[in-house]
Amino acid sequence: MKAMILAAGKGTRVRPITYTIPKPMIPILQKPVMEFLLELLRQHGFTEIMVNVSHLANEIESYFRDGQRFGVQIGYSFEGRIVDGELVGEALGSAGGMRRIQDFYPFFNDTFVVLCGDALIDLNLTEAVKQHREKGAIATIVTKTVPREEVSSYGVVVMDESGRIKAFQEKPSVEEALSTNINTGIYIFEPEIFDYIPSGVEYDIGGQLFPKLVEMGAPFYGISMDFEWVDIGKVPDYWQAIRDVLLGKIKNVEIPGYEVAPGIYTGLNVAVNWDKVHIEGPVYIGSMTRIEDGATIIGPSMIGPSCHICSNATVDNSVIFEYSRLGPGVRLVDKLVFGRYCVDKTGAAIDVQAAALDWLITDTRQTMPASPPAEHQAIAELLSVDSK
Question: Which CATH superfamily is domain 2-231 in?
């Protein structure tokens, strides 16, 4: 069976991570989110998978290649061009990306599934396709019911008693919401869907194709299913996903490495004197990371590979990406560290290099920074990255 993963977006709401990592490659404890999708597709018999790529396309293609090591076949549709020797992404929209593949050569010749490349799911795709076919649908959205107080964060799907889609509401207020069923970005289509998608233009599934199907009275349905769905659309979503994995709330993601003490997991060759640090799980520490004496790590926290946590530094409820060095006495609470950026859990980012704070947080592959000027101590406190 055939499927498509949507992977061409720039991921603007997950910046600064997506400056250098495309959304489908964002790691969930060292494993790209798209890899989990491939495993799910293979499990349900979808072994021929097209992926549209644009922003940082090489990152995706060089990791997944032809899909052989994942037990599937993968093809790529690049959306963009070369300008002055550089690849420039020019995404065609989700529906436009589908159409480009079909126009190149008809690939989707039977029922097919389309998934957004930035969510962790454990959906029974076999059952979803079965229900789609039973309804005689040309298009189906897999929906999920959320508590009414959460509807304002999602696109709401309004259906009649038979499941036929009547309308959409984009992030309605709690009072105005006509439904608690939300769009999960999981779609099932018949090849006839291409009769509704124009060629050669940017065209969106949710914003253009679906309203058109409703307007024309096409056999367009929603099916509400109970499944695990972790959207990584924004930095706070990613933050929560890592926390939930460490807390054991996401059952299809295992914490990698070795459990060296209850709730404390490490990769290979972590340099630490366990008697001289204070660590409260759940915590994951990546391989070749050094943790100096006097450091404190309080979970749920993740420290990536090849990091260096200096003496008396504190990492509390935080996510630290690979090659990060936290200076002596630095205190990180509720922070995400990615390269030269320190991000709070609302998504607000600080460029520590531009703020002349790279003595606090720097790359382990760089020469150690000089001691900080005294006036920078106050700046650090304002940024909630406290140096003691």
Answer: Spore Coat Polysaccharide Biosynthesis Protein SpsA; Chain A (3.90.550.10)
